Amino acid sequence: xxxxxxxxxxxxxxxxxxxxxxxxxxxxxxxxxxxxxxxxxxxxxxxxxxxxxxxxxxxxxxxxxxxxxxxxxxxxxxxxxxxxxxxxxxxxxxxxxxxxxxxxxxxxxxxxxxxxxxxxxxxxxxxxxxxxxxxxxxxxxxxxxxxxxxxxxxxxxxxxxxxxxxxxxxxxxxxxxxxxxxxxxxxxxxxxxxxxxxxxxxxxxxxxxxxxxxxxxxxxxxxxxxxxxxxxxxxxxxxxxxxxxxxxxxxxxxxxxxxxxxxxxxxxxxxxxxxxxxxxxxxxxxxxxxxxxxxxxxxxxxxxxxxxxxxxxxxxxxxxxxxxxxxxxxxxxxxxxxxxxxxxxxxxxxxxxxxxxxxxxxxxxxxxxxxxxxxxxxxxxxxxxxxxxxxxxxxxxxxxxxxxxxxxxxxxxxxxxxxxxxxxxxxxxxxxxxxxxxxxxxxxxxxxxxxxxxxxxxxxxxxxxxxxxxxxxxxxxxxxxxxxxxxxxxxxxxxxxxxxxxxxxxxxxxxxxxxxxxxxxxxxxxxxxxxxxxxxxxxxxxxxxxxxxxxxxxxxxxxxxxxxxxxxxxxxxxxxxxxxxxxxxxxxxxxxxxxxxxxxxxxxxxxxxxxxxxxxxxxxxxxxxxxxxxxxxxxxxxxxxxxxxxxxxxxxxxxxxxxxxxxxxxxxxxxxxxxxxxxxxxxxxxxxxxxxxxxxxxxxxxxxxxxxxxxxxxxxxxxxxxxxxxxxxxxxxxxxxxxxxxxxxxxxxxxxxxxxxxxxxxxxxxxxxxxxxxxxxxxxxxxxxxxxxxxxxxxxxxxxxxxxxxxxxxxxxxxxxxxxxxxxxxxxxxxxxxxxxxxxxxxxxxxxxxxx
Length: 852
What we know:
With 852 residues, this protein is mainly alpha-helical. 66% of the residues lie in helices and 3% in strands. The chain contains 43 helices and five strands. It has a five-stranded mixed beta sheet with strand order 1-2-3-5-4. Helix 13 (235-246) packs antiparallel against helix 14 (250-263). The chain is elongated and about 105 Å long.
């Protein structure tokens, strides 16, 4: 949700006022934070300074009212203006720094210029910083904030010249730091600003490429600042966090931010960075919380507005993002980040003329600035708009060839679009500029691994795999994929323009890096469009065990087709729902009680919330519920409106249509009306499942009786009871399992009846091939070899490393006279026998199959 623009406290005071007498603070609720404990000998002014430093801004302003008239006017003004600016009273803060003896103090002048920069008055701020640096040529803060302001204003040449001051004679701060010149680095603030300046200078000059020690030196400066020089100086933790984030290492950044937040829970920069990390994790509620925290301190916070915009864009609501952007640009018309994000909203809505207009607006005041193009590229990349995103990344790189972020973004984009050679080239260049970027390093290692993969190419697919660890992959994947190609493409009346890449990774960590850039994601398959990544379907500590890879590939290839058909603009719930439909499997057992409960308790997702059940589940069941509900919605639309309605919806999504417009245009129902219709349909679906109270009571009683009869070996009577249960609760696995066992018992011995229940169990089983093998053997013994063959093949699909399944399949191929199948098993069985022997060796040699 987006938070309201106006926040009022208990007294009803509007926090939005730019300027107000100090008395206004008395009418507001104080920060809900523990008080700052200060030594008894602290003066009132020192107490207020500590309160402001630790984020108790309102309390500090109240404390300042007790300061004696003879207090240091400069110190008082610095504390007062810090607290006022933090709470949004920037005009009052500037006024406090502009009178009497205060206005000539260098620290007051620097703080005043920083507040001007926060207001977007960058030309005034830059001029003010220049004057301070001229009057005080040794001032580290003056030189740093001048460089930072030039950077923010889109003047990279000016910024670089200002940052270069830190490494020029006679300063050469890094040399002096390494020499540990006594007395020079006694202020934590100076050390942090020097380190920040060196980091930006090194990035802009590609110094990291030739001076790898610099990375450790800069980190060491941050650590020494907060660990040795001043343990209270939390901005050192914030700076370290920013440094880690710039190298794509959010885990270490979070550690630093936690330390900073413990010292100052209201620090705006800390909250912003935590909100940005929340968005990296698709944690929209976490980002909303950060927005609310920022506005509780400063109701007019531009940082909050920008974070809200990013949150909305990530939730694929570009139209909604225009309102907070208009608010920002009304205050700061030339805000480069806001203009870049505005351009991104236009790009996502296919409003190309507005996109170019917004970019031209940036170019008028910052003609060499790459940030706006980078913002557009990032948003397009997140939506898998590969060619358009790549073009924007290229323009950002052209403007800032030293900046690694657009190179990393472009390289990762190429990996997702299946252009590994281009990805290698771009990421190599990014790694050369920044050898310490964690995500880039992960991807380069992955690309090195993939370069060694074996390949099998067919008319429509390229299958890549580790020939040593997964030797049986090529024997089955390629044929199966070609067998489903026409069926899936025909369903959606679309064929992808390029061959689909199937990449089978020997470990789950490698698969996760391939799909997300990080070593964990809780699934076995993923499609990024042209690329389908799969973790190897075998048992082992480094995989996720066996699974029906054929069903997973059909699911993922459906994504490839629907994403291609819609230029990656299909609603997430729709591509997932259609993929589940294409699995051609009955509803999963574990979904049944979950769906029943969600329907009866009115806990199904809204249409707006459905997509985020996949991306950012709030409850353990949310992701599975999102899959199940999406499947249901697609099934419902197909049943009521027909396949052509689904295809028309996909076409409108391709044209950039919004969900709230597509539904009424195609189905003649608003989203709310459709939801009501769908919810009524779900009630009918669950009505015969047997999970209502009276039926549950009856089923439980019959279960007890049925189990008792089995224990007493009265199998015929037990079968009658379990048949009643199966009729009452047809979507429950247990009665099928009991009846299969009973009909296969020697007492009853009715394999034909057992088959029905074994097939019901197998159709929903994804990870265990026992049902498929048992069905195949029963059909073989009933002289139905043709039917047996399909289940024997499925046994291999579920566990391609089960030697027994391969031997069974060969036996049935011989019965059907399938010469091609026999030849394949004659190749595979010796390979698999040898592979299993190596895998089981106690020494676990290098050739022994890495999967455990």
